[in-house]
Structures are given as structure tokens and as C-alpha cells.
Design goal:
Chain lengths: ~130, ~130
């Protein structure tokens, strides 16, 4: 396990998620590779390519507002130039707690820079307060 | 893109899925690494480690029976010794069609042998016939 890569990837993810959960998709869009593939529970088929995901994300810009989130037990499994980060995501907003399963596949694109090549988010359960 | 790896990974997945959807978890269990991590929509938190997933899967042995399935548009994104396979899975059983998003992260463990280090399955929508 490369601790530098683990810490770097978790920090990138945390920063992008904090922005995303407050209506700003830009940090995630900057992290996504050109060949990015994306699974979203609200979309029937996988979205392929940065351009398509940009359209989806720009449609959400400014619309999301949450109180706080927790990345639960993030784990990075790395081998060479690829790594998969997985974690449970708890999102708190008012009286609502959303729980999601999150998978992010990162690829080293040179000079220590990591890009996300594949994302998969899915809800586990929703508890209303 | 390494076409050999792409074809090999898709073939491994197809064989394991065919067995799994007819009640036999053994091929998937043989593919999973010791450090395997697993997201299932029915489990609130990620399952970590081969032993825990074996317990879950053995509890399903013989219980699943489906008519046929389709791996829709499988894509393998590989860099060096890791690769992520993603596809939409359509499962047909009687009048029911299940649709899932599937992510499988594979790692080369030597001598051309691939193991799965992370799986994430989630339902997209369910249509009743």
C-alpha cells in the first residue's frame, strides 16, 4: 500500500465531494478523465465520456445544498498506476440522512496526478428523521 | 487497450455471472482476491474480505434461478496491472426484467491470471411484465 497515494486520493475525493454536495460540480469535472465512465442510479445505462457527464452535472449546478457529509471507512486498493477508492457516504441535510455506496477508480496520468476513470454511486437506504 | 486482457476479463465475468444467476457462487468466489471489497444494495456498509463475502454468497447457494442475462456494452479500462470492467446487466426471469449497474475491478496477480478486488452492483430499475 502506497500511503502517499492513499492519502492523496482520499483528499482529492473529499474536496470534490464537499463542492458537489453544495452545488459546485467543477472539482469533480476537473478530476474526470476524457474516457470517464459513470453509473448513476437515476440513469438507465452507463454514461460514457467526459462530455456527457458534463451536461448532466451542469444541469445540477447550484441545485444541491446539504449540511454535512461523512466518508465512512474509505479504502484504497492500489496496484501500479490504478487504484480503486471505495467508501460509504453519509449525507446529512436537515432531518434527512442519505446513505450511499461509492466506488471511484483512479488512474495515475503522470507526475503524481490522479484522474477518475470510472464512478459508481448507489443508494443503500434512506432514513427520514 | 490490451485486447487480450479485455476479452479475457469479459469471458471470466460472463462465466461467473452465468453460474451465479443459476445458484452457483463458486466461480465468483474463486475470482475474488483475499482483500476483496464488496458493495451490495441490500447491505448497509461495504463488506471487506473474502471470508465475509463467502458467508453471504453461500447463504444464496441454490436459491437463484433465472432464464437468461445480457451483459450490455461491457467496457474494460485498463492500465498496467489493474482494470475496471463496467456493464449494464439485464436479467430475464419469467415476466420480470431486472436491470443493474455493474462495476468489477480486476487485478493481475501474475502469469496472466486476473482476480476481482472490488465489486459494486446496484439496481437501476425493475420492470414487471
Amino acid at each position: 500500500m502506497n500511503m502517499d497515494a492513499t492519502e492523496k486520493i482520499i483528499a482529492l475525493e473529499r474536496t470534490a465531494m464537499a463542492a458537489w454536495l453544495n452545488g459546485d460540480p467543477s472539482p469533480f469535472l476537473e478530476l474526470y478523465s476524457e474516457d470517464f465512465t459513470y453509473f448513476d442510479p437515476s440513469v438507465e445505462r452507463r454514461l460514457d465520456g467526459w462530455d456527457k457527464v458534463k451536461v448532466l452535472y451542469e444541469g445540477m449546478r447550484g441545485k444541491l445544498k446539504t449540511d454535512r457529509f461523512e466518508m465512512v471507512n474509505p479504502v484504497v486498493q492500489q496496484d501500479g498506476s490504478m487504484a480503486v477508492l471505495s467508501y460509504n457516504l453519509d449525507i446529512y441535510s436537515g432531518d434527512t440522512l442519505w446513505k450511499e455506496n461509492c466506488t471511484e477508480v483512479y488512474r495515475l496520468v503522470g507526475d503524481g496526478e490522479w484522474k477518475i476513470v470510472h464512478s459508481h454511486f448507489s443508494p443503500t437506504m434512506v432514513k427520514m428523521g
